[in-house]
Amino acid sequence: MILLIAGITACKQKDGEPSVTGKAKTLKDTTLLNFQTIAESIRYDVVIKNPDPADEWTETCLKGLDREKLVDEVYKAIYAGKVKAYDYYTDDPMSVKQVKEIEKQAESDGAEVAKVQFLEDWFFDPVTFNLYKKVYFIMLAYEILDENGNARSYKAAFYVPFGLESN
Q1: Could you tell me the pTM of the whole model?
Q2: What are the φ and ψ backbone dihedral angles of 128, each rounded to 5 degrees?
Q3: What is 81-129 written as a DSSP string?
Q4: What is the layout of strands, in order, in the sheet containing 113-125?
Q5: Least confident range of 12-26, 31-45, 47-61, 118-132
Q6: Helix, strand, coil: what percent of the chain each, to 5?
Q7: Alpha-carbon dihedral sign for residues 78, 74, 131, 119
Q8: Mean pLDDT, residues 73-100 taken together
Q9: What is the C-alpha to C-alpha distance for residues 153 and 114, in angstroms, rounded to an integer?
Q10: Measured between alpha carbons, how far is 158 from 84 in angstroms, rounded to an integer?
Q11: Are 135 and 160 in contact (CB under 8 A)?
């Protein structure tokens, strides 16, 4: 009797967790059953403002991006208190006032958010050939302009964490 109770208790699955037996309880479980981790804590940069409009490749790559909306939504969420911004270099939480100072300084310099960085885990399902990304944060970076107003490099502003289920 004790072994039966222990067996039932040990095999209980929490809601929302993939089944280890291969029998899915939800559509999400079905999708995650075959996934393999292919990248843990991978960081990568994405240029979101083309520094050279004559660069057709970058223009084509950015064709579907609404950069202003992305940046505005991040700032709106910070200012509304929905998310917290963190210093990219120290991981210290930043106040809304500090974030507004960064935004004001960039505007006075004529710089715009032109690059983002993501921290993610990647999972691949070889059966369905699907890729799932778990996004941990997005970092915004401003252009650093030369004396002629051309972008010469980028400076990290801050990062904003995403929920664990973002993709």
Answers
A1: 0.74
A2: -100, -5
A3: TSS--B-TTT--B--HHHHHHHHHHHHHHT--EEEEEEEEEEEEETTTT
A4: 36-47, 113-125, 130-145, 151-161
A5: 12-26
A6: 30, 30, 40
A7: negative
A8: 96
A9: 10
A10: 10
A11: no
